Amino acid sequence: MTATILIAGTLFTVGGLLAVIRLVKGPTQIDRAVALDVLLAIVVGVIVLLAAYTESDSTLVVAVVVSLLGFMGSAGLAKLLPRDRQ
Amino acid sequence: MTVVDWIASAALILGASLSLFAGLAVLRFPDTMARIHAATKPQVLGIMLLMLGVGLRLQTPGVIGLLLLIVILQFVTAPVSAHLTVRVAYRNAEQDDEDQSVTPEDRAHLDERLPASDDGPQQMGQATADESDRPAGRG
């Protein structure tokens, strides 16, 4: 199981770094919002992976909150971005 | 390792690799619409696979209820937030005629559903300004 955690953690790390590159480059603000969405999905994945590693359920509540926060964030960005343009 | 452990490992690695592919696609895909398409994959299928892996690993009822709650929340919120983002991306793409990410067929289909875009590109500033005046029944 340790090997699984290592492989999955590496995949998450590389995916997160690629999303961060898009977050920095992103030509439009929407690209940045999308990259943030991906990054937040990866954060939820890492929290869940931590729960699998430690075999305790105490971090899973954080995953619920973060996944809700991701929705609120992208909905708020979608509402506010058009005024930001031009 | 038992069979259940193998299945849990496979689910965890598959879910993590979906995140990697989403990061790769968000970096490499050419336009915003394609990036949004790729970005929604780890949010639903990836989270579902990860929850399956963890649920098989910690087999207690409380944990499985919490995992189901996360999966249901993602199922409900991921399409809504992707839709909101795509709507903004579509309106902005309308302003740049050289942007080919929305085909004319898509545009004709979407124009029936987005009354605010009937104004045309030149009135975009006004269309966003009087947001409260838009017809009822949408967003």
From TrEMBL, chain A:
It is found in: Cell membrane. One of its GO terms (cellular component) is plasma membrane. One of its GO terms (molecular function) is sodium:proton antiporter activity. The chain crosses the membrane at residues 6-24, 36-54, 60-81. PANTHER family: NA(+)/H(+) ANTIPORTER SUBUNIT F1, NA(+)_H(+) ANTIPORTER SUBUNIT F. Pfam families: MrpF_PhaF. It comes from the Bacteria. This is Cation:proton antiporter. Coiled coil: none annotated. It is a multi-pass membrane protein. InterPro entries: MrpF/PhaF-like (IPR007208). Keywords: Cell membrane, Membrane, Transmembrane, Transmembrane helix, Transport. Belongs to the CPA3 antiporters (TC 2.A.63) subunit F family.
UniProtKB/TrEMBL annotation, chain B:
Keywords: Membrane, Transmembrane, Transmembrane helix. Pfam families: PhaG_MnhG_YufB. InterPro entries: PhaG_MnhG_YufB (IPR005133). Residues 104-116 have a biased composition (Basic and acidic residues). It comes from the Bacteria. GO terms for molecular function: sodium:proton antiporter activity. The chain crosses the membrane at residues 6-27, 64-86. Residues 93-139 are annotated as: Disordered. Belongs to the CPA3 antiporters (TC 2.A.63) subunit G family. This is Monovalent cation/H(+) antiporter subunit G. It comes from Nakamurella flava.
